[in-house]
Amino acid sequence: xxxxxxxSKRVAVVCGGWSDEREVSLSSGEECRAxxxxxxxxxxxxxxxxxxxxLARLLEGGYDVVFPALHGRYGEDGCIQGxxxxxxxxYCFSGVSASAVGTEKEVSKAVYAAAGIxxxxxxxxxxxxxxxxxxxxxxxxxxxxxxxxKPAANGSSYGVTRVTEASALNExxxxxxEGDGRVLVEECVEGMEITVPVIGNNELRALPVVEIVTGxxxxxxxxxxxxxxxxxxxxxxxxxxxxxxxxxxxxxAHRALxxxxxxxSDFIVTAAGEPVILETNTIPGMTAQSLLPDSARHGxxxxxxxxxxxxxxxxxxxxxxx
Length: 322
Fold this sequence. Notes:
By secondary structure, this protein is α+β, with helices and mostly antiparallel strands. It is built from twelve helices and 13 strands. It folds into three domains: 3-92, Rossmann fold (3-Layer(aba) Sandwich), CATH 3.40.50; 100-118 and 189-314, 2-Layer Sandwich (D-amino Acid Aminotransferase, Chain A, domain 1); 122-187, ATP-grasp fold, A domain (Dna Ligase, domain 1), CATH 3.30.1490. Strands 8, 9, 10, 11, 12 and 13 form a six-stranded antiparallel β-sheet that branches.
C-alpha cells in the first residue's frame, strides 16, 4: 500500500471503556488521534467504548480500521477484538487468541514454558481464596520472600502488592481479586527491570531495550505516570550479549503468543545476566510517558510515524483470512 492510499483510510481510535485503566486509555486515545492527524490521516475520530452510542458511531462512521487504545478488561483481553472480527472491521494489534492469552498471566506462562522462556515460579488462585496459616507458610517456603501478589488478568500495576511476610498474604490476595478474576502469587526475581518492544507482523523488529529505574519497590502506578526521563534509560545498561538475548526472547515471546502489530515484554535481568520474562503487553501504553513510544523514538521512529505504521500493519492480510 502506498502512502497516499494509507493516509486516505478512515480511522476510529477506540479508548476509554470500563476497566481500572480507563483514564490512561483516554489519554492514550487522545495522543494517538493527534499523532495520526499529524501523520496526515484526514479522518481520525475518537470513540469511547463505554459511550451509549458507541456501536452506532462505529457503524455509521464508515471506518476502514479501528485503532484500539484500550487497556485491561474488554480492551486488551480479546473482547473488543472478537467484536470487531464479527463486524469485519480491521483493527490494530493482536487478534482474539493472542490478546486473551497475553492478558491471562498464568496461561501466558504456560506458552512461555513451551517456547523455552523462563518466567517466575508462581501459584494461580481463585479470587476470594483465604489461606490458612499453614498454607501461607507453605507458600512462603516454596516461593520465598518477598512475594508478589497480582491480578492474573490486569495491567498497569493495579492490585499488585509486594508481600514481605506470610501474615500479609490474605490481604494482598483479597486486593488482587477485587475484580473477581484469578490471582497470581509469584516469586520475586531480583535484578534489573527492563522492557523490550517488538513491532511488525511477519517481519519483526525488536526496538531498543529500556531499563526502568524507579527507586521504588517495583514499577508501580505512581512511577509509571511520572515523566519518562525520570525512569527510562535507553539503551539499557546491559552487556551486549545480554542485551541481544533480551531482544531475542522478546521476539520469541511475540511469536509464541501469536502477536501482531506490536508487543512489549517486561523482564527482570538477574545478576547472572539471565532475562526472566514477567509478561507481554499486547496493547502497550501510548501516552507521552509510555515505554514503547519512548523506545521507538530512540530507534528513529517518531510517534506519528509509529502510529501510522500500526495502521498499515493492521491492514496487511492475515494468514488464513486473505
